[in-house]
Specification:
The structure holds 2 protein chains of 2 kinds.
Chain A (H helix, E strand, L loop, with lengths): L1 H7 L3 E2 L3 E5 L3 E7 L3 E11 L2 E8 L7 E5 L5 E7 L4 E11 L2 E8 L12
Parallel strand pairs in A: 1-7
Antiparallel strand pairs in A: 2-3, 3-9, 4-5, 5-7, 8-9
Chain B lengths: L13 H16 L19 E5 L3 E7 L8 E6 L2 E8 L9 E5 L4 E8 L4 E11 L2 E8 L14
The chains are: A mainly beta, B mainly beta.
Chain lengths: ~120, ~150
């Protein structure tokens, strides 16, 4: 009944993000310890950029003496605007940190005007 | 909200009672998720740790995303494990405009008191995918043993 439904529903942890930008790109660094390349899924659907990361480590057996870490998979959904080039998104995963680079479209970059 | 009464569980397990309570609260107030954006009270300043005691060893799991091996220092004194480290801010963050920052950086130190059955001479540590795993073996005499007793 209610209990069964609550268990079937997948719950996620929202990874902590550090987002920086300059004129040409936006860099989002997300902390996803326990996720390997194979467990990572990044997709763009319209203005929604979804990042999902499955944990690769299995639950240890025994008596829990301290439990602070989350065992849930990660999910983060960003809303990206038109200035982001959909084909210019690149990602790398190093030591549990996902670095996502979003290129800004040429047309959206600030133009320098030289005074003649 | 659900108006029908739920059947009382026949089990006397206290955890079932907690599950029921949690279910009631979740239906009334929404789920117990941590907020998507960390606020003042849940701002994290150190790594999160799990400690699991198995039959033969004690396993310590520490979330240290982005921390390099050389920036971690571990020591065991008796049954006390200390973990020190330095979590650096991503290099790419320098000279750029920060839009949002939820991650923490800086040095940290955690001291854990483990069960006194651990053997401080047999410790193994492995850093992989941003998780530090420390396995500390239990002393032989502390392990669970099954002794066959023959009935005469």
């Amino acid at each position: 009944m209610d209990k069964v439904n609550a268990q079937n529903e997948r719950r996620f942890t929202v990874p902590s993000c550090h987002i920086t930008e300059d004129e040409s790109e936006v860099l989002a660094e997300m902390e996803m310890p326990g996720v390997q390349r194979e467990g990572l899924e990044i997709k763009v659907d319209g203005s929604a950029l979804t990042i999902e990361g499955k944990r690769s480590d299995e639950e240890p057996k025994g008596k829990w003496l301290l439990r602070e870490r989350s065992r849930r998979d990660y999910r983060k959904i960003f809303t990206i605007d038109e200035s982001i080039d959909r084909d210019g998104i690149s990602a790398e995963l190093v030591d549990g940190i996902l670095r996502l680079r979003l290129k800004v479209k040429e047309a959206a970059k600030p133009k320098r005007i030289t005074i003649g | 909200m659900d108006q029908t009464k739920r059947e009382r569980s026949t089990s006397l397990d206290i955890w079932d009672a907690f599950d029921d309570l949690r279910g009631e609260l979740e239906r009334s107030f929404g789920s117990f998720e941590l907020p998507a954006v960390p606020g003042l009270l849940d701002w994290q300043t150190g790594p999160l740790i799990d400690v699991v005691e198995g039959d033969d060893e004690v396993l310590v799991l520490v979330d240290v995303p982005g921390v390099k091996k050389q920036d971690l220092e571990l020591s065991v004194t008796g049954s006390v494990l200390s973990i020190r480290g330095d979590k650096k801010q991503g290099e790419d963050g320098k000279g750029r405009k920060t839009v949002r920052r939820e991650t923490w950086a800086g040095s940290f130190s955690r001291t854990l008191s483990l069960p006194d059955t651990v053997n401080p001479d047999r410790v193994e540590a492995l850093l992989k995918d941003g998780i530090l795993r420390v396995r500390i073996a239990k002393r032989e005499e502390a392990r669970k043993k099954t002794v066959q007793i023959s009935v005469k």
